[in-house]
Structures are given as structure tokens and as C-alpha cells.
Design a protein that fits this description.
The complex is a heterotrimer. By secondary structure, chain A is an alpha+beta fold. Chain A contains seven helices and seven strands, in the order H-H-H-E-E-H-E-E-H-E-E-H-E-H. In chain A, strands 1, 2, 5 and 7 form a four-stranded mixed β-sheet that branches. A three-stranded antiparallel β-sheet of chain A has the order 3-4-6. In chain B, strand 1 and strand 2 form a beta hairpin. Chain B is globular. Chain C folds into three domains: 109 residues, Ubiquitin-like (UB roll), CATH 3.10.20; 101 residues, Alpha-Beta Plaits; 238 residues, Rossmann fold (3-Layer(aba) Sandwich). Helices cover 24% and strands 17% of the residues of chain C. In chain C, the strands form six sheets. A seven-stranded mixed β-sheet of chain C has the order 16-15-21-20-19-17-18. In chain C, strands 1, 2, 3, 4, 5 and 6 form a six-stranded mixed β-sheet that branches. In chain C, strands 7-8-11 form a three-stranded antiparallel β-sheet. In chain C, helix 8 crosses helix 15, helix 9 runs parallel beside helix 15 and helix 9 crosses helix 16. The radius of gyration of chain C is 28 Å and the shape is elongated. The chains are: A alpha+beta, B mainly alpha, C alpha+beta. Chains A and C meet through helix 4, strand 3 and strand 4 of A and helix 14 of C.
Chain lengths: 165, 353, 589
């Protein structure tokens, strides 16, 4: 029979099998770790600035002449968590359509970035904002007033997205 | 003052000191556990509450006290309530017989460094009490009316019984050498560097492993194995009842360490130290030094407990049972046999009397 | 009877039919834009190009066979358009082969050259034929790298229709509809080639009472509804089959609902009733009263005001009031606006419980509304149903002498369901004099103000039931809007939003109104009068109705749905079922 056995007896030698030396080795390893420099970032005092690839809170791009969004609702359709609600309205601008209401429920949002991916206008993008604190459910539903961010603050992400277009 | 009143006052003072000291020790063990685990994981650990995070434990306990105490609707309320009391009560009762040093004199009053001095079956009492501790955990698991709790409780019972055996047997060698069950006598028998760890290394290892199991510490923390059993026997406990289980676990850890110090590491005995100091027998300063020595031996063992927890993964249940019954028990029996034979031989050739 | 073969399937059809018709009747859909079964054939979109041919014959007159024994087909030199090629016996048609597919790809690429691809802002997106065929019949690549033609984006063709010239693929469906169906020939193509666009003739606008049907038949988003424009994406709505309550035609409609609010109505094909169309008036008006200005719960008069009460208390009060009058003093007013189920239980209440023969209903006639196509002068949906059920009695007080009888105090109590008296001031005046007025209504009117006990009823969009139209066709209607009585989980159509919305989602918080269908309220009152009825749903009422009333014998909700309605008394020989043509169907998810 050409069967290869792989029992503890085959795998381990005597010293390994009585555990104790190996346990001592393990303890030695962890003791070495104790003396190494610490990685902890003291968060509220030291803040991390994410790179362009970071997917934080989704925001709407605000240009000089208003938001880019045309309220096509594709983000809302693609959102796996159903976090986005859009109500379109008509505008006299060339783009015809604009969001009367654009709400993202940050309690539902899972930061997957599908909305950004599907957006035909590059109007909704993931920002670097990761500090999201709410004291009640209503506050967590962000409206247009909180979502619209001037384009100048979003250059990193827009540049990152440009590489993959 | 009548002699009786003095005795009672001294007793109350001792109990007060021990209970508070023990709870403080448990609280700070939690702090050190978190600190050491952080260091092992290249983190800093608690550092927000007070200087170096030293008040973290108080914040934790305060939080636990503030939390809602939830009793599951289908739980057996009586036992659900009693279980944590048993756990902490037993953990503390053990300290009645643990000596921290030789007695000293205030005036002509002899004060013992133990709550119940002169108990000649001290070791037996400790073993007995630590066995009762299993009731707390098993009852907690059973009365919660939750499958995870019950499994945790059952595991705890099985594990305690399995390891108690080898634990008890491992101590026989020590007893044979000391010839007494009184803990003070056992300590005195180790004076002059004749620590049992050198005379009974196998027994020490067995006792060490068994006490890990008895205190439900990793790698034997199956009763509360989080990935499998949510929270084990204390799944359904919240608030300070959970806190009490938590404290009991750490108190047990201190007990186990103290037992190791007393039985294997010579207690407060330290070669050359007392000769150098040349303090008169019975002086309070000597007692204080002895307590210091005791504590100095205790701390590394506690550190070892924590160190092991953050280094070694949990055993599987079958591995746990294999180790307990197939390795430790025969080893402990063999140890008794070898000790006996050696002692008979030594006696025969007149090395000891 | 010519026999043809489409994609290997042998089909028997009748002479004179075009290929696309023959295929359609047999459930095979050939891609098309400009063809519509109700319109003339123009053949200008070229999407329906198919490969046609005939089995080749040898010189001796026998069919040529290939090695496998199959007929050898002599394919035509060029593809033919299925919409304009009549079938011929033995014809073989290939709608899926390489040649056809190549042609379809080419047509799609061509149509998309000047299409702006502004689907994100287009109302048609999601139910657009161009989108659908782009997926099914196109390579999805364009070789066109010149500049697209730009045309006018927002041109109102009439009061209700907005035209986007860029999106137009010049299929001429709207032009033909205006000429042939709406008989208002004001639309035409102007300019040529890629500059071609649609305009109204100078000085005219497309304001036919059926103008909005061009929105439905437009295969792309070139024609959109000014009323609905940008209100919602189609996939956010649920569409429920229903019946228009606007007149006695009983047009089949689909009710588009989002967040428990009706956003639009659109016609549903029923060749026996409304074919493919519905009127603008219904489309614009028959949903607003469901969304706005509704009554809520039950109310009891206390002094000069109506105060809210629980359903039980109000029903008890109504029963007590009715009980305190002699049967001859009670007048029951059924309704041609209520469902058959409501009227049936009301008639039961009057005959069996109250034992009054004073029962009738109001007619609402508006001769100005009627026209030759769909609109009728009878503005109620269910007059024939009410008649059949016996809401009009030959003896007893009727509408003719009700006013008089109230005035001489022989009628003291009136029970009215689902009615308004705005068009009958004389009756309104009389009703204000009665001692006891019990009213069912969905919206506040001059009648509800007078009521002593008032019950809020569900509208047609919230209730399950049947209407009987002018041709005595009983048609089934499903609830589209949820009420407190009628939750969405209990069998209503659901959009994705309805399915996954939780209590704390604003987009699923659409108001659930506190109203009940009429039959439920009648049952409540009747049970307080000791009737002991146990109808659990509209279907159980209809079952009883189908046993009790002769015309309805043998009918059931299943059959009504299956046959798109059944004419009274013809359950055993109902119309033949046919394949229903829908210009474009929104396929959910």
C-alpha cells in the first residue's frame, strides 16, 4: 500500500512530542516581542491621513456651479445595503436633472464603494473621512448639506480614480 | 483589653487586609494582563485612565457596577444568583490557611501571618476548597439555561476533576519530604535552599500544568472558550456578577501561585538573606521582610501565568483529556514511587533520618 | 392556411399576416422598434430584419434534400423586414442566424450613432427598448468617433408630452399614433438624414385626450410625461395590475407605486377593453385622490364636529342608529364607484338584516367626457355591477323620489357608501336634513361633513375586488397601496425598496392610511346587528357573490385574472386567450 501516513508520531520528534521545549520556545518568542517597539498610534492626538485609495464616507462632488450629481439613482440601485435614497428634480441647467434630496444612511453604509464605481458622472466618491460619530439614528442619515464637498478637497481620490479609468 | 477581644480584633484586621489585598491584587492582575498582552502584541495597552492607565481596573469595575444586571427569563434565578458567590467565596476562603511568613510578637502577643494559624491539614483544606470552586462554575452554566453556558459548566467540571487528581498526587512527594500537611511546616522544611522545586521537579511541572487547568487559564480555558462557546459558563452573566466571576478567576490565579511558592519555591525562605540581616526571631520587621520575599516569588509566577496565556493556543478537548489522564496521572504516580524508593534508600544508607 | 417555419418551429398562420404578426401570435418576439400591432406599418427602423427563404425544388418538382434528408433552403438574396413581409406558404424564417444577427448589430450601431446615451437622466431607462436591444442584439461597440449631432433637449409637444430630439430614433410611432389612433395629425418629421426631428405643425400642439399614450409606445425616452418627469426611476416602483375607476370603460392599468405613494398610471393591454391605450385624464387624475387629502379612521358626530373613534365603537354606533329606525325609514345608497364585493354585502345587509327595500345608487353622467375611442359618459366604474347585484329595486324608494321622501320624513336614515353629491345639489340639500347619515368615503367631500357616522374606505388602489364595466365585463383589481388594514407583505407587489425597507428607513416610511375596504366596514356593522358574518377577505365575499348572483356564476379571482376579465353570464364560454403584446415591459431586477 502506497499510503503516506501523517500522524503526530511521523511529524514530530521526541522533544517536540513532549511539548515542553516547544512551549518554552514559544514563550521565548513572545518575550522577544515584548521588548520590540510599539506600533500603537495614539488616536485622538495622532491622526492618520489616508491615501487616495482609502474608502471613507461617500460624498458628493461640489463644483463651482453646483453638484455634479444628476440624480440618476444608479448608486441607490447598486447599493447592496440600500443606504442611499435619491429624489430627482428638474433644473433649468443643461444637465436637466438634479437631486432634490440625496440621503445616505451611514448606519446602513458598508463603504463598499459600489456607488462610486457605478456613478456615470463621478459625482459620488469615497472621501477620506473616517470619523463618523452619531448620537442617534436620525443624525446618521446625511443629507445634501453634509454630503456636498468642494471638489478641491477631493483631488486625491479623483486622481486615484483616474488611474483606473 | 481582654485577650479574647484582642484576638478577635487581630483576626478581623487580618481578614480585612487579606480580602482587600486579594481584590486589589486581582484588579491589578487584570491591568497587568492587559498591559502584558499589549506588549506581546507590540501595543501599548491601557494608558488613558490615570498615569500609565493605572486606574483602568477601577474604571472597569465601575463600569461593571453601573451595567444592567440581566437575569435570563428562563434561568434558575436562585442558583444563577448563588453561583458567582460560591466562586468568589471559595476563592477567598482558601486564604484562611495560607501563611505569608513566620509569626511575630507585639509586646508579648504572638501574631501569626495567617488567618487560621496552626491548622495541621492546611494543604488538604486548600485542595478541598479549590474543588468546591467547580460548583460555582458548573452551577452558573447549568442555571443560565443556555446551551453554551451548560457546555462551559460541564467542561469545567470534567476538567477540574481530571486535573485535581494529578494535582493532588503530585503533592504527595512534597508531603513525604516535609512530613506534614501544615503549610508553615512545609515551608520550614524547605529552609536552607532545599526548595522542593529542586527535589521534586517533575511534581512541580505537574502541579504547574494542573494549576493552569484548575484556574481555567489558557491553554486550558475550555470552559469559557470564546470562539466555541460565546462566553462559556458566564455567557448569561452581566454587570457585577460577571465581574465577580472575573475577579474569582484572578483570585484563583493568585492562590495557585501562592501554593506554588509555598510548596515548591520555599515560601518566604531565602538562603543567606536572613543570616545577613540577623534580625531577632519574632520581630515584626523580620515578618515584613518574609512577606516581601514571599511576594517577590509570587510576582514572577503570576507573570508566567499571563505570559503563557498570550503565547500558547488553547488545547482541544480530547488533547486536554489525554494530557490529564494518560500523561500527568501516570507521571504523578511514578513520581510518588520514585520519591518513596529514593527516600527509603537514603534512609537505609543513613543520609537522612 | 399558409404554413411557415420560424427558427425551426412550424407555425400555421393565416394569409395576409406579416411575419412579425405571425411570430407574435405564437409567442416569438422579433426585435422591433417602429412596428406596433395597433399602428400601420412604416418599416423604417430596420430592426426586424430577418432572413427568409423557401425550400428549394429540383427541376422535377420535388424538394431538394441534403445529406441528412432535410430540405435545402434557398435563402433570399437580402434580408427582409418582418413587419412588412407577408407570410407565404412554406416560408422559412431565420431570426437568430449569423446573417440576421449581423444585420441587427449594424442597425443598433447605426441607431446609437447620434443617441446621446444619457440613460442616467432618462425616465425611460430600465424599460427602454433601445437599452434592452443594446444588451441582446448589439456588440456594444461603436466605431463612430466623429461628433454626435446635437438637437433640442426639451421641447413640449403638447401640455403633457415633452420631446427630447436627441434621444429620438425616428421610428414614427408617435406620428402614426397621432394620425391613426388619436386622430389629431399634428406631428411630423422635419429635416433629413441625421438632422431629422419631430415637430408639431406651426400653430398646433399635440393636446389630444390620448396624447400621453405616445410616451408608452415611444421605444426610447424621446417622449416623456411632463407630469411624471424625473419623479422616480422605474425600478424603484412596483407595478400592480389594476382597473381605472375613471369611467365605465374599465381600462386596464398598471399602478406604479413607490414608498406607498402612487407615482404614475400606465395602460395595460387588454384587447377586449382598452386595447393598448388609456386617456390622459385618467392618467393625470385617477391617482391624486389616493395620495392626497384622505380621510382617516372612523368618526362619530358629536355636536357640530366629527370626532375620531375606533372602528368597533363607530360600527356599534352605526348599528345602534340603524336599529333605532323602522326598516321603511332607512334608505341604502349603494355605489357604482364601489366594488362588486362592497355592493353585494350592502345589498345583503339591506335585504337580510335591515329588511328594507329602499336601495338604489347614484349615476354620474358627463356627456362631455365621452368620445369615440375609450372615454364614456358614465363616470363610474361599476354601474353595471351594482345593477346586476340588485342595488336598484323596482319597489321601494329610489333616487327618483328620495329627495321628496326625505322632505316628508318618511326616510329618516340614509346609509351611503363611496359617493359624493357635488353634482347633485338638490340631493345634498335633502341629505343634510336626515336624522341619521352613515357615510363611507375615502376623501372629504360636502357629504362627509354632514355624516353622523363616517368611515374611511380604501380607494380602488388599496382594495382587492372586481369592477363590472360598460360591456358587463367583470375585471379583477389588485391592491397596489398598503394601508393599515392591508400590509405590503401580505401579497402586494413589492419593489426592492419595499422588500428590504426597515422601520427606520425614511424611504419606506410612506404613510399607511387607516382605512378599510367597504365590505369590511359593512360586515362590522352587520355583525353588530347580529348578522354573524365571517368573510375573511374579498375573495370569500366574491365566492359568496358568485353563488348568489346569477351573472357571476362560476367566476373566481383566478379565472378573472387568467382571462383578463369575464363578461357577466359567460363563464362557460369566455373569450379565447391570446398572446398579449406589451410594447416594452419593465423586467424587475
Amino acid at each position: 500500500m502506497n499510503v503516506e501516513k501523517n500522524t503526530e508520531k511521523n511529524r514530530l520528534n521526541f522533544w517536540e512530542r513532549i511539548y515542553l521545549p516547544e512551549i518554552a520556545r514559544g514563550l521565548g518568542l513572545t518575550f522577544k516581542q515584548m521588548l520590540k517597539p510599539k506600533m500603537t498610534r495614539q488616536y485622538p492626538e495622532e491622526k492618520w491621513e489616508p491615501t487616495g485609495s482609502y474608502r471613507g464616507r461617500p460624498v458628493l462632488v461640489l463644483e463651482e456651479d453646483g453638484e455634479r450629481c444628476v440624480a440618476c439613482s444608479l448608486c441607490s440601485r447598486v447599493c447592496p445595503a440600500l443606504a442611499i435614497e435619491v429624489q430627482a428634480g428638474e433644473t433649468t441647467k443643461e444637465k436637466e436633472r438634479y437631486p432634490v434630496k440625496f440621503e445616505i444612511n451611514m448606519l446602513r453604509c458598508i463603504y463598499c464603494g459600489f456607488c462610486e464605481e457605478v456613478c456615470p458622472e463621478e459625482a459620488i466618491i469615497m472621501s477620506k473621512d473616517y470619523e463618523l460619530i452619531f448620537t442617534n439614528q436620525e443624525d446618521a442619515i446625511l443629507g445634501k448639506d453634509k454630503l456636498l464637498i468642494p471638489i478641491a478637497q477631493l483631488q486625491d481620490r479623483l486622481e486615484f480614480l483616474r488611474q483606473y479609468r | 483589653m481582654s485577650p479574647l477581644l484582642t484576638d478577635v480584633l487581630i483576626l478581623v484586621a487580618k481578614i480585612f487586609l487579606i480580602v482587600n489585598g486579594l481584590l486589589m491584587a486581582a484588579a491589578y492582575l487584570v491591568y497587568f494582563e492587559r498591559k502584558i498582552s499589549a506588549w506581546i502584541q507590540n501595543r501599548i495597552g491601557p494608558n488613558r485612565v490615570g498615569p500609565l492607565g493605572l486606574f483602568q481596573s477601577f474604571a472597569d469595575v465601575f463600569k461593571l457596577l453601573m451595567k444592567e444586571d440581566i437575569i435570563p427569563a428562563m434561568a434558575d434565578k436562585k442558583f444563577h444568583f448563588i453561583a458567582p458567590i460560591i466562586s468568589i467565596g471559595v476563592a477567598m476562603a482558601v486564604y484562611a490557611v495560607i501563611p505569608f511568613g513566620d509569626s511575630f510578637f507585639i509586646g508579648d502577643k504572638e501574631v501569626f501571618m495567617t488567618v487560621a494559624p496552626g491548622i495541621n491539614i492546611g494543604l488538604l483544606f486548600v485542595l478541598a476548597m479549590s474543588s468546591v470552586g467547580v460548583y460555582g462554575i458548573t452551577l452558573a452554566g447549568w442555571s443560565s439555561n443556555n446551551k453554551y453556558s451548560l457546555l462551559g459548566g460541564l467542561r469545567s467540571a470534567a476538567q477540574m476533576i481530571s486535573y485535581e487528581l494529578s494535582m493532588g498526587l503530585s503533592l504527595i512527594g512534597v508531603l513525604m519530604i516535609a512530613g506534614s500537611l501544615n503549610l508553615t511546616d512545609i515551608v520550614h522544611a524547605q529552609s536552607g535552599g532545599k526548595w522542593n522545586i529542586f527535589l521534586q521537579p517533575i511534581a512541580f511541572i505537574i502541579f504547574l500544568v494542573a494549576s493552569f487547568a484548575e484556574t481555567n487559564r489558557t491553554p486550558f480555558d475550555l470552559p469559557e472558550a470564546e470562539p466555541e462557546l460565546v462566553g462559556g459558563y458566564h455567557t448569561e452573566y452581566s454587570g457585577m456578577k460577571f465581574g465577580v466571576f472575573f475577579l474569582a478567576e484572578y483570585a484563583n490565579m493568585v492562590t495557585a501561585s501562592a501554593m506554588m511558592v509555598l510548596l515548591f519555591l520555599g515560601g518566604w525562605e531565602m538562603p543567606f538573606l536572613y543570616e545577613q540581616l540577623a534580625l531577632p526571631v519574632g520581630s515584626p520587621i523580620l515578618a515584613a521582610v518574609q512577606f516581601g520575599v514571599f511576594a517577590a516569588k509570587l510576582v514572577p509566577i503570576l507573570f508566567f501565568f499571563i505570559w503563557v496565556r498570550w503565547s500558547i493556543p488553547r488545547f482541544r478537548y480530547d488533547q486536554l483529556m489525554n494530557l490529564g489522564w494518560k500523561v500527568m496521572l501516570p507521571l504523578a504516580l511514578a513520581n510518588i514511587l520514585v520519591t518513596g524508593v529514593v527516600m527509603v534508600l537514603l534512609k537505609h544508607f543513613g543520609f537522612i533520618n | 392556411m399558409p404554413q411557415i417555419t420560424i427558427d425551426g418551429q412550424r407555425i400555421e398562420t393565416s394569409a395576409g399576416k406579416t411575419i412579425i404578426e405571425a411570430a407574435q401570435e405564437n409567442g416569438i418576439t422579433i426585435p422591433h422598434f417602429c412596428w406596433h400591432p395597433a399602428l400601420s406599418v412604416s418599416g423604417n427602423c430596420r430592426m426586424c430584419l430577418v432572413n427568409t427563404g423557401f425550400p428549394r425544388k429540383a427541376p422535377d418538382g420535388t424538394f431538394e434534400r441534403d445529406a441528412d434528408g432535410n430540405n435545402v433552403i434557398g435563402w433570399g438574396p437580402k434580408l427582409s423586414i418582418a413587419c412588412a413581409t407577408p407570410v407565404a406558404d412554406g416560408m422559412v424564417i431565420d431570426t437568430q442566424g449569423d446573417k440576421t444577427e449581423h444585420a441587427q448589430n449594424a442597425v443598433m450601431e447605426f441607431l446609437l450613432i447620434n443617441h446621446p446615451l444619457d440613460c442616467p437622466i432618462c425616465d425611460e431607462a430600465g424599460q427602454c427598448k433601445l437599452q434592452e436591444y443594446e444588451f441582446l442584439h448589439s456588440k456594444g461597440k461603436s466605431r463612430f468617433d466623429e461628433k454626435k449631432n446635437h438637437k433640442d433637449k426639451r421641447v413640449p409637444l403638447g401640455p403633457n408630452v415633452m420631446f427630447d430630439a436627441e434621444r429620438c430614433i425616428s421610428c414614427s410611432r408617435c406620428i402614426r399614433f397621432a394620425d391613426e389612433v388619436a386622430t389629431q395629425p399634428v406631428l411630423t418629421f422635419v429635416d433629413r438624414g441625421d438632422h431629422v426631428t419631430i415637430e408639431t405643425f406651426p400653430g398646433t400642439q399635440f393636446d389630444s385626450p390620448y396624447s400621453m399614450n405616445v410616451i408608452d409606445i415611444c421605444p426610447v425616452g424621446a417622449l416623456t410625461s411632463i407630469d411624471f418627469r424625473f419623479t422616480s426611476r422605474v425600478w424603484e416602483m412596483s407595478f400592480t395590475d389594476s382597473i381605472c375607476p375613471g369611467c365605465s370603460r374599465g381600462c386596464n392599468i398598471k399602478v406604479g407605486v413607490r414608498n406607498n405613494e402612487i407615482l404614475r398610471l400606465e395602460p395595460r393591454t387588454n384587447m377586449h377593453v382598452n386595447t393598448y391605450w388609456m386617456c390622459d385624464d385618467a392618467r393625470l387624475n385617477q391617482y391624486k385622490f389616493v395620495n392626497e387629502n384622505r380621510l382617516s379612521g372612523a368618526m362619530i358626530r358629536s355636536g357640530n364636529t366629527l370626532v375620531p373613534a375606533t372602528w368597533e365603537i363607530a360600527a356599534e354606533k352605526a348599528a345602534k342608529l340603524l336599529h333605532s329606525y323602522k326598516p321603511s325609514e332607512i334608505m341604502i345608497l349603494g355605489s357604482a364607484r364601489a366594488t362588486n364585493e362592497d355592493n353585494f354585502l350592502l345589498s345583503r345587509l339591506s335585504h337580510k338584516i335591515l329588511k328594507t327595500t329602499h336601495i338604489d345608487f347614484l349615476h354620474h353622467t358627463d356627456n362631455d367626457f365621452a368620445d369615440k375611442l375609450l372615454r364614456t359618459s358614465d363616470r363610474t366604474a361599476n354601474a353595471h355591477g351594482a345593477m346586476e347585484i340588485g342595488i336598484k329595486q323596482h319597489h321601494g324608494v329610489s333616487m327618483d323620489n328620495l329627495v321628496e321622501k326625505i322632505k316628508n320624513h318618511s326616510i329618516k336614515a340614509v346609509y351611503v357608501i363611496d359617493e359624493h353629491v357635488a353634482d347633485n345639489p338638490e340631493l345634498a340639500n335633502a341629505l343634510s336634513l336626515v336624522e341619521c347619515l352613515i357615510v363611507h368615503a375615502s376623501n372629504p367631500t360636502s357629504l362627509t361633513i354632514m355624516a353622523h357616522v363616517l368611515f374611511a374606505t380604501s380607494t380602488y388602489a388599496e382594495t382587492e375586488g372586481t369592477f363590472t364595466n360598460m360591456n358587463k365585463r367583470v375585471q379583477y383589481l389588485m391592491p397596489a397601496v398598503a394601508t393599515l388594514d392591508n400590509e405590503r407583505i401580505a401579497g402586494l407587489e413589492m419593489s426592492r425598496w419595499d422588500k428590504f425597507g426597515a422601520r427606520n428607513d425614511r424611504w419606506s416610511q410612506g404613510v399607511r392610511r387607516d382605512c378599510k375596504p367597504g365590505w369590511e366596514i359593512i360586515q362590522l356593522i352587520a355583525n353588530h346587528l347580529g348578522a354573524g358574518w365571517h368573510f375573511s377577505d374579498a375573495e370569500s365575499v366574491f365566492k359568496e357573490l358568485s353563488i348568489d348572483v346569477k351573472g357571476f356564476h362560476g367566476m373566481s379571482y383566478e379565472l378573472l385574472q387568467e382571462y383578463q376579465g369575464i363578461t357577466l353570464g359567460t363563464t362557460d364560454h369566455s373569450d379565447v386567450k391570446a398572446v398579449v403584446y406589451e410594447s416594452h415591459i419593465f423586467k424587475p431586477n
